[in-house]
Design brief:
The chain is mostly helical. The protein is 84% helix and 0% strand. The protein has one domain.
């Protein structure tokens, strides 16, 4: 049960940050025989699913490192990552009791949504700052975080669940501050635009 819980949580959390990398990694390890996914998730090892995840993951890898484009990509994937997190969480529990699967779907969607909002909010705040190199650094760190986190979820469940608890506590503290920071950034950007427009009219 602990392994199933870690798998469900890991796939949901990973989908909120890097859905295609999450699917590709889980499917690849299943294909190599290093892990055994439940029958309900065995489709992740399909060459077609892995190929699609690889193509979309490559697009995301580059799109996520371009300022403004990454936030646009995140906005679109709000409607993809969260439902995917719920589906993966349900699949991770296999043929469990329907009530348990319903709870898993709700929890998986919430976990994916929390990870997604933390990522999207951080990237939006970075895009409003005058430091474009930090965008690439942050994106690369997210790639490594998802890769390492999923390996923990698959091979060291207890350690991953401790890590996940820390992530959730950090997200609960950071999300309201990220929201206020993004709002302040947009207000400052609007003020600069108004100021420039006023100067251009004056000139």
């Amino acid at each position: 049960m602990l392994e199933s819980l870690s798998l469900a949580a890991g796939l949901s959390w990973g989908s909120g940050l890097r859905l295609y990398l999450t699917v590709l990694l889980a499917g690849g390890l299943e294909r190599l025989g290093w892990i055994h996914l439940p029958d309900t998730l065995s489709v992740l090892g399909s060459p077609w699913v892995m190929g699609t995840a690889a193509v979309l993951g490559a697009i995301e890898f580059f799109a996520d490192k371009i300022p403004a484009l990454d936030s646009f990509w995140d906005a679109i994937h709000t409607f993809i990552r969260i439902p995917a997190g719920a589906v993966l969480a349900v699949g991770a529990l296999g043929h469990a009791d329907p009530a348990l699967l319903t709870i898993a779907g709700l929890a998986g969607g919430t976990l994916a949504g929390t990870a997604h909002m933390a990522k999207a909010g951080t990237r939006a705040l970075i895009n409003l700052s005058p430091e474009p190199v930090s965008n690439v650094v942050t994106s690369t760190a997210e790639d490594g975080l998802v890769f390492g986190g999923l390996l923990l979820a698959l091979f060291v469940p207890v350690l991953f669940l401790i890590f996940l608890l820390g992530f959730l506590l950090l997200a609960a503290w950071a999300l309201p501050r990220l929201w206020r920071g993004v709002q302040g950034g947009f207000r400052a950007m609007g003020a600069r635009m108004v100021s420039r427009l006023a100067r251009s009219r004056h000139d």
